[in-house]
């Protein structure tokens, strides 16, 4: 059995530098050379394998097998879910039901710009993140806000910063699913750990939106909306993430938040209305879409929630099926035990539940075979790069873990002891800022975070959760996300301006996350012990 060396170069500094190879390579390729994510991940995979073979002396055949296992996990645990989630979205668009839903929301958002920002960017944006992710909330919400009178840059800022809290459970829980896969921690435990951090984080963004739209006057005049928005989202998100799983928290959080806000605004409105554009909304039915169209759009989301909950919940036997397991083992010099990377093929994974949901939704919406085929075609055209990125970056991460590079990095990071709580979110933040993907950051740093926590005596669920939530907070400054987000505004190919505007906020919310991590570690560490 291959034995992972802790200090293969004989020099601690050089070993740490070598173990950072995947991060350095991705930084150069993505930020420096501005390559697309899939190509950068492919080149990064090749270079990581070479370093693992030459420096860590891992057998090339075993490294290749470990990479293949990671590629299968990336395809089956990530792409299979996202592709069918995106196909549901495209089917709703092609049948006109998504436009009906969007139009109904806009017409019921009142004339106040501060309320519009929270209803659309916060509540509705979380639904888009939960279904699709990958920058779509920006691209979809920003034009709605611009139509309502927001300046383009302000619309993009509001869309981006409202999207902080939902990202870990975005694309039907993909980041949390991959975090569980690479660490070997139980999926529900990881989901619950992330949910505890997100629940506190979610208290802040609605206040930021009020400030962005109307400075301190917005906070003074519309503060009840911020309180209701954050608490209602947590009410819909936290129980599902903690007791059902990571697939639906964004969707339930969004729908509960929007519904409660909608009812709240029937009994409370700000005394002064801040209207950026004179558009008359009188609620009720849209002029363009019928009541049936709106009800059918709601029905699609309800079908998705029911099918996924029954299929993937802890009570379901489907998620426990395993037909074939592939595994590559090594002996960890750090942990003094066998460690392994593995892939268990289960045909009934969450992605299959999304596929079944899509078939039922298509039947209920009476989508023709032509529309269904076009939805699949659109999804592949939109997501082929994401499929390759998931394949290559998780393959890279599995080589990083199997070779011992992750353990060499954790070996010295654990010397920080409790102070690692402060550093932990930074790794997630940097990983997502480079790749544009919370999922990629979790794949790369999940084992490192878990191993460091174990060596430093920290709660094992807390540092992986901080990695994931830290990654969320880099989304507003990630070039990959910004490129998708600005695609529907006049800031196309001007992502740098948007990123610079978002950077101070992204850093400020990261500091807030560090405080959350420290408080949990000091006052409630038992909440993050499996």
TrEMBL record:
Q: Where in the cell is it found?
A: Cell membrane
- Kindly give the NCBIfam families that the UniProt entry links to this protein: lctP
Molecular function, one GO term: lactate transmembrane transporter activity
Provide the transmembrane region boundaries. Answer: 12-31, 37-56, 63-86, 119-148, 169-188, 194-213, 225-245, 251-268, 294-313, 343-365, 386-410, 416-434, 503-523
Main localisation: membrane
User: Which PANTHER family does the record associate with it?
Assistant: GLYCOLATE PERMEASE GLCA-RELATED (PTHR30003:SF0), L-LACTATE PERMEASE (PTHR30003)
Name the UniProt key words of this record, in alphabetical order: Cell membrane, Membrane, Transmembrane, Transmembrane helix, Transport
* InterPro entries found in the cross-reference section: Lactate_perm
For this entry, the protein name equals Lactate permease
Give the UniProt entry's GO cellular component terms: plasma membrane
- Tell me what topology the record assigns in the membrane: Multi-pass membrane protein
